[in-house]
Amino acid sequence: MAKVSVSRLAKMKQDNQKITCMTAYDASFAAIFDQAGIQVLLVGDSLGMVLQGHDSTLPVTVNDISYHTASVVSTAKNSFVISDLPFMSYATLESTYENAAILMRAGANMVKMEGGKWLADSIKGLVERGIPVCGHLGLTPQSVNIFGGYKVQGRENKQAEELIKDALILQEAGIQLLVLECVPVSLAERVTKALHIPVIGIGAGSETDGQILVMHDAFGISAGFCPKFSKNFLLETGDIRQAVNLYKEQVESGQFPSAEHSFY
Ligand code: KIV
After folding, report:
1. What are the chain's domains?
2. Using CA atoms, how far apart are residues 90 and 122, in angstroms rounded to an integer?
3. Which of 19, 98, 109, 148 lies at a C-alpha separation of 20 to 30 Å from 3?
4. Ligand 1 atom at minimum distance from 179 CA
C-alpha cells in the first residue's frame, strides 16, 4: 500500500469513498491504525486531556505535539499524519511559521489550526512556504472559554451561515482538509457539499466525507466522560485490532455515526 497523500484524500471525496481518521499519540497505536488502513492519523492537542489529564487542551505545548508526532511517524508507514498547532502557537504570523516548521520537522505531513477567517493570511503564508494546512471549525476546543463549555455550534441560522462563509474563506486561503466538530447534521451536509476539499466530521453526522474520533473515546477508555457522538468499538469486539477494523467498516458503510451519535 502506498503512503496516503492529500491528492488521494481529495480523490476519495470525488469517488464518494469515506475517509477514516483517528487520533494517535504513540508508536504502538499508530502501528495498529496504520496496519488497519486508517488513512489519517491526527496528533491532536486532545492529548492534553486524554494523556495529560487536563480539563482542556490549553496547556499543551508545541514541544508536546512535536514529541508525540515523532513517535507516531516512526510507525505510520502509510497513514497521512496531521499535527495540531496548539493554543496560542499560531497567534502571530512569525510564531505560526516557526511552530509549523517544528511540527513538519518532527515528521508531520500537515498542520491543523482552529478558527475561521482570521486565519486566512497564516494559511496562505504556510501553503506558499510548502506547509499543507487542515482547518478546524465548529466546536474548536481551544476556544472553550469563549464558548463557555463544550457545546454544539451552528444551531442558529446566523452562526451556521458564518460557519459556511468561514469554510469557503479557509478553502480559498489554501486548506486541503477541514475538520468539522459538533455541528448539526444539516449544517455539516451543507459545508461538505459547498467545499471541493474533504470534510472530516466528529460529532457532525454521517454526511461528511470522513470521520475522526479521539482514540480513547473509540475504545471507551477516556477518563470520566464519553461524548454522545462517540462509540465504544471495543465493547462489541473485546480486541483492539478488531475494534479498529469495526470502526473502519462502520464508517465506510455509513453505519457510524448513526442518529444517536449525531446532533440536529
Ligand atoms: O485534538 C484533537 O484530537 C482534535 C480532534 C477532536 C479532531 O482536534
Report:
1. 6-261 (3.20.20.60)
2. 8
3. 98
4. 7
